[in-house]
Amino acid sequence: xxxxNWTRDQFHIPQGMIxxxxxxxxxxxxxxxxxxxxxxxxxxGEQLITGWNAxxxxxxxxxxxxxxxxxxxxxxxxVVMGDTLSIKVFQALAAALRLNPNRKxxxxxxxxxxxxxxxxxxxxDLLGNGLELRIVAPEDIEDAIxxxxxxxxxxxxxxxxxxxxxxxxxxxxxHKMGVITVWDLAHSAxxxxxxxxxxxxxxxxxxxxxxxxGGPGAPAFIYVAPRHAEVAQPALxxxxxxxxxxxxxxxxDAGKGIERMRVGTxxxxxxxxxxxxxxxxxxxxxxxxxxxxxxxxxRFIAGVEENCPQLTLCSPRDADVRGSQVSFKFDNGYAVxxxxxxxxxxxxxxxxxxMRFGFTPLYTxxxxxxxxxxxxxxxxxxxxxxKPEFLERKAVT
Length: 397
Description:
Number of helices: 14
Enzyme class: hydrolase
CATH architecture of the largest domain: 3-Layer(aba) Sandwich
Mean pLDDT: 97
InterPro entries: Kynureninase (IPR010111), PyrdxlP-dep_Trfase (IPR015424), PyrdxlP-dep_Trfase_major (IPR015421), PyrdxlP-dep_Trfase_small (IPR015422)
CATH topology of the largest domain: Aspartate Aminotransferase, domain 2
Number of strands: 15
Radius of gyration: 22 Å
Strand content: 5-15%
Largest sheet: 7 strands, mixed
Organism: Puniceibacterium antarcticum
Low-confidence stretches: none
Order of helices and strands: HEEEHHHEHEHEHEHEHEEHHEEHEEEHH
Function: Catalyzes the cleavage of L-kynurenine (L-Kyn) and L-3-hydroxykynurenine (L-3OHKyn) into anthranilic acid (AA) and 3-hydroxyanthranilic acid (3-OHAA), respectively.
Binding site for pyridoxal 5'-phosphate: 85-86, 113-116, 155, 184, 187, 209, 239, 265
CATH class of the largest domain: Alpha Beta
């Protein structure tokens, strides 16, 4: 049984703040600063370049990958860390297309994060060869998986509404039609139970700065199913993905299994901070996380709908098809979010009119939810959001 009082104490939440934006950036694990300082002073400072061997920096991407694997239902040895999520999307999508060379359609949905779609469009422009990106409504994705599709590129939990796709069902449909699957777990990893192996997923990618609390810019991960691990060809053939990087051979020879999906030099400092968070995750059961998340989300929805009739729920009402966030629509949603932030309640805004609130059981409590509802109600009833300083758009919303 997960002790959520203990997990809350492992993270720094500023005094007086109600943090409902862990779906965008998780808070600082209290042990991360000391862990990073120790790495910098003892390893980098004293060992310098010998730290690659003495402190295991070279093996860190696969070691950390295995720790992530437990949280996403992946087989050991089939997740590796490094680079950004956009790069990992590019790698996975390019490798998936090469496994299905006689088909030309990448299928995604309109609820997908725009960056994933940009990556697909850029890859199509690069490769040419008649490839196309087909985008349908999220609810139409299952019927759109036909025998002409090469690859599905789907974010399991949508970034605006939190709508959750049925990974097992859609993967089964895809395989029946001869389609390769790429799953983006940016809003799934650490938020909902994921079973990549059980669902039979082909590829998956995800970031670690949201629910996994790795910090801003924390490295992404990529998963390749065992059946593809020795044949998937990385389009980004980086030095670290070579079978013998220190042989300095002129021609590329892909490394063994998931190692071939490494590209650049491992971000050792960032992964060290991430490992401080994973020490907490090692003591967490994802089933407990999910059950508590549903409780928090349901409490928030009920309270907001009772007290704030101006707002319209745009997240699924059914928890079974909702991730760990709740979104409401309001024409002046941006200003309301700014007013909330000024009162110490941190959510965020997604254009054109969506207010997002993330619920992360590691540190979010019933008291946080109730106080957030109370403050939101006061802001709306008094139109306290209608001030020039709240209406002016900032660079990050």
